[in-house]
Amino acid sequence: MNSQPQRSDLARRATAATAALRTLPKGRIQGGVASAGTLSIDVTGLQSIVACGARVEVMGAAGLIPAEIVSLSEDRARAMPFGALDGVRLGSPVLYRGAAELCPGAGWLGRVVDPLGRPMDGLGPLPLGPVSHPVRRPPPDAGQRARLGPRLHLGVRALDAFCTMRRGQRLGLFAASGVGKSTLLSMLARGAECDVAVLCLVGERGRELREFLEDDLGPEGLARSVVVCATSDAPALMRREAAYAAMTVAEALAAEGRHVLLMMDSLTRFALACREIGLAAGEPPATRGYTPSVFAELPRLLERAGPCADRPGGGAITGLFTVLVEGDDHDEPVADAVRGILDGHVVLDRLIGERGRWPAVDVLRSLSRTVPGCLAPHERTLMARARSILSLQGDMAELVRLGAYKHGTDSAVDEALRLGPRIEAFLSQRKEDPVLTVDDTFASLADILAQADASA
């Protein structure tokens, strides 16, 4: 008869004991520096305790320097620092801190943070979220994931009409330097349909951060965003960690039922940071100097984005990842690996930008693998007709410039030369232009083709 009160009393005692244990000072597990180089240090005394990926802190001239274990051997552990190794000596204390965790929450909206979860905007401490989330975690179980959600509007006509996305999809933006990737991301951050945006800037120029926040993102865009930034001068570990920290923030917000738009610029700089870490850990260079671990890290990161678990109210992470192709080579190793993982790719072409059409999206080389499932039959017909017109216009452009084609020779070519410029004008869009939904975008495209047909 007294079993229920006894269980309640035991529960109260267990709760009180747990709270008391949390107030006790944490144990101090310490090793020492055995050797130090420019990019890494070797630590003794911790090799039998720590695991790869664990966090440690090294005593330097200005205090403790956070670092991460990147490799282990019988007699020592190798760690790479998140900052400069100024003041580190042989025998300097190394403290074990455990696995990397972040506590993001709704209070992080409108803030700019570094990959370790420290504020960069001078607005004071970050409020901690209700749950601590591990930074390194496996992707969700594929068998328990929800399917992709409804289509969403991105606010960029070239993408909404020719590369339509669904909620939870992952898309790559492939371009060489100076072709407008950052500008396109700013348009997406301001106009895309989402509850929260998480922006990850990996290896960006330091001067561009405030310009991006104030000019491109704006107060309204920043209010619904969390920005994770590691500039180009940051150590390789910090640049790599920016991608994992941004993914962790996105997962934490999506777990609360939100639709999160994750934009990462760029995966190439993430891969370069992973290559530096792999080489420092003793890995052999393989494809074009990239270490084997780079091509293992890419799917481990990218597969974490997408729909959450299949349950009512589950959120989703829609991912947009830029890839900086080397010398316009879209078959270089990182671009080729990423294209095989993601659910589609958008190609930005320098020649299109040089002709004055921005964003410089090459719609003929861009692809969304979810288009068949998110377009109505009449929309698929519109898109296919517009693609055919643009393709034929491109094929005949040289002959027209040389004066080798005579109007009236081929009705299909005449149609392409008449409608192509109007479709190109439709694809041109400035940052300040009104944002249209996907339905309105297809309606505008239909009007252009109908008006052109009427004037034929």
Automatic annotation (TrEMBL):
Superkingdom of this protein's organism: Bacteria
Signal peptide positions (record): none
Encoding gene per record: fliI
Main location: cytoplasm
This protein's name: Flagellar protein export ATPase FliI
Organism this protein belongs to: Pararoseomonas baculiformis
PANTHER family: ATP SYNTHASE, SPI-1 TYPE 3 SECRETION SYSTEM ATPASE
Listed transmembrane segments: none
Domain AAA+ ATPase: 167-353
